[in-house]
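Database export, one record per block. Field names are fixed; values are copied verbatim from the stored entry.
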Amino acid sequence: MKYLSTRGENLGLDFEDILLKGLASDGGLYLPETYPTFTNDEIRGFKGLSYQDLAVKIIAPFVAPCISEPELKKIIDKSYKDFDDSRIAPLKKLDDNLFILELFHGPTFAFKDYALQFLGNVFDYVLAKQNKKITIVGATSGDTGSAAIEACKNKQAIDIFILHPKGKVSEVQRKQMTGVKANNVYNIALEGNFDDCQSLVKDLFADKEFNSEFSLSAVNSINWARIMAQVVYYFYAALSVGAPEKQVSFAVPTGNFGNIFAGFVAKKMGLPIKKLIVASNKNDILPRFFEKGIMEQKEVSPSLSPSMDIQVSSNFERLLFEMSDRNPSAIKDYMLSFKKAGLYQVKEAELAKIKDMFGAYKLGDDGIIQIIKEEYLSHEEIIDPHSASGIFAARKELDNEAVIVSLATAHYGKFIDAVAKSIGFVPPMPQKLKDVLELDEKYTILPNDISALKMYIKSTLQ
């Protein structure tokens, strides 16, 4: 398998190259030159496989020939050994055609574990093979940071710096990061929002001299390995509800577009997905785009679902690349316009193709509280604020033609205040999350300034 950049450079790279680089040197995002595809008979043959064995089938074509299937199997088994449900991603039925996929059974109780546990272990494998060290720099709106730190802590070949927006993540999310005392982990509370964090990380990667000096690598979903690992649970859920004989739709809470883009990849690989439904909060840059074809950045408004408090959906560039028939010149123009003016407008033909595949809905804080309450009263199911937006979007699209699987992206215990406000009492929390609240914290506060960030990383590592 060879890879290319959405902006036209870095052609012909293999999996190990793009894993360690994370972001292309031209600022683009990596994608495979071609997608491996499975026939209906092959997909049918996956029925009954464990999550781990299915992951080997889905991921193997993307990493060949860099990682053999036996080695891949070892990496995958190691990645999911500490999940608290043997099914890894259990599915629950809510209504006749509506299911919820629980993606919070990993060590940090969020869907990010499904990709980042794999990413940490595949980094370990490749770095040992190449006798290299890397510096990971990542931005988080809440869950990516804790999952990345959990996956990379105490790894000798990795130093990891995670930026989170100061005061704009939940207490549990923050302490899951800042309570980790590993010698290779550095937490930064940035005076800004998530988009500021993400922008600084991209600027670091764009600085070729700094990038080379510290061997930067990415854990955000700009790293293709994240997307690749997330494709697995789309296949796992679809098989569980009747694919390939039945079409399946997915409702996905998303801000950065990485989680739902993995669903798009699953569809390209042959999974019979009818529709991919974007679920957003009041920071509704994606639903606004799907309405008019204009991607326009506005101010971020803090919400009850902070992991979606985003106005720059980085992974949308990958979808634009596909919808423009893989035209890197068009992508460069769009991204330049967005950087200069804070907006771009796609062609009508591109928007038509996107609308044919995707739907999009937003849900504000009052609606989130209402949905959490309704699901508890009707199903005795306690969901977190992000998953509530997914359920809302799923019910908007529910029909008799397709099964809908709504992705539950985090355990409610990570957002206990919002959940308690919704259902009228404080539900029980997992002991591990209770323990997190007692941790002493260690982090550095930095201004929203690239020079300050560079200086901090340099002084820390030197």
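Remark 1: The CA atoms of residues 251 and 394 lie 5 Å apart.
Remark 2: The chain has 20 helices and 15 strands.
End of record.
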